[in-house]
Design goal:
This protein has 15 helices and 9 strands. It has about 350 residues and is of the alpha/beta class. Helix 4 runs parallel beside helix 8, helix 9 (about 145-155) crosses helix 10 and helix 14 runs parallel beside helix 15 (about 330-344).
């Protein structure tokens, strides 16, 4: 146990903490005026690829709200570009105009060295670590293999995921191979972020809930395990806490620990305390409904107290939302959320 480690790191390890740390997924986003100012002069991808701009928007919420972690500004689809998949962003979100839908397209994907294929995220991390107080760690992240596959195969994401689920049924061997290829690219990508200074790493499986319990266990779980085992093998004792976020997986929350993650970020569909119990008391992160931040500051504080009241004790609890901050969220409500947690 390292009592000198940042509060967030200790909580993600399940260790005792004097209070519960708090940060928000997408905390460096479009709801903030500083982000909007930068975005008005730059494309989204340019913001991701320019470490000066990415560092600026990463640090804005820390300076404004004082969260306990600084999640690096980037996008989960950045590694797909490095693997040879064209990725574009427009007003409707991300688009892969040449989707990966068969074994030949999967075979054409190429591995990459993060220092050469995605150097900007490493430089961004180095920049923010240099200026952050020691007690506020940088948080690196990636998409999970299944969620990356969803974007790569769909082209334009849909609620039904017809193309990726069609690949699963039409050619399960190719589908498995795609997840393996993505996992093998993700592990070194995450390890490089840790080497650049990230004090915690989160893997986002936003679309996991589209799978059945059986399919999640058969396809998504092995690829997740491959990611987490791969990161640990690359980093050894220097490996920071590894966090798995899944959305829509309350029906098989008991299976999540089999992924090998150290901590589990959950959505709002179960009370936070119930999720922690079903996870066997492991470190947990969550899980206020992000729509709540569109209420009043008083309502946000009340909902935050209700959420925290479901969890006994403080050990191994990181407070967050059940998904990312929504566009149009009033900054004063984010301030109320963070203050309520840190004052508890």
């Amino acid at each position: 146990m390292d009592n000198d480690a940042p509060l967030l790191v200790r909580a993600l390890r399940g260790e005792p903490t004097p209070r519960r740390p708090v940060w928000l997924m997408r905390q460096a986003g479009r709801y903030l005026p500083g982000y909007q100012k930068v975005r008005a002069q730059s494309s989204f991808l340019e913001m991701c690829r320019r470490p000066d701009l990415a560092a600026e928007v990463t640090l804005e919420p820390i300076e404004r709200f004082g969260m306990d972690g600084a999640v690096v500004f980037s996008d989960i689809l950045i590694p797909l570009e490095a693997m040879g998949i064209t990725v574009e962003f427009d007003d409707r979100g991300p688009l892969c105009p040449d989707p990966v839908r068969d074994a030949d397209a999967i075979a054409a994907l190429t591995p990459f060295d993060p220092r050469e294929g995605t150097p900007w995220i490493l430089e961004t991390l180095e920049r923010i670590v240099e200026v952050l107080p020691r007690e506020i760690p940088a948080i690196g992240f990636s998409g999970a293999p299944f969620t990356l596959a969803a974007y790569a195969v769909e082209g334009r994401i849909t609620k039904s995921l017809n193309h990726v689920m069609g690949l699963r049924w039409r050619d399960p061997a190719a589908f498995t191979n795609l997840l393996t290829v993505l996992a093998d690219a993700t592990a070194p990508y995450l390890a490089a972020q840790a080497a650049a200074g990230a004090g915690a790493l989160q893997v986002f499986d936003t679309w996991a809930g589209m799978l059945s319990r059986e399919d999640w266990a058969a396809f998504a779980l092995p690829s997740l395990r491959r990611v987490f085992d791969g990161v640990r093998a690359l980093l050894g004792d220097a490996c920071p806490p590894l966090v798995l976020y899944t959305k829509g997986t309350a029906g098989w929350i008991d299976l999540l620990p089999e992924s090998g993650a150290d901590a589990f970020s959950v959505d709002w569909r179960l009370p936070l305390g119930e999720s922690k119990r079903l996870l066997g008391g492991r470190a947990i992160q969550g899980n206020l409904d992000p729509t709540c931040l569109h209420a009043t500051p008083q309502a946000v504080r009340a909902a935050t107290r209700e959420m925290l009241a479901t969890v006994e004790g403080r050990d191994g609890v990181v407070v967050n939302l059940g998904h990312g901050v929504i566009v149009g969220t009033p900054p004063e409500n984010v301030a109320a959320f963070v203050d309520e947690v840190q004052s508890a």
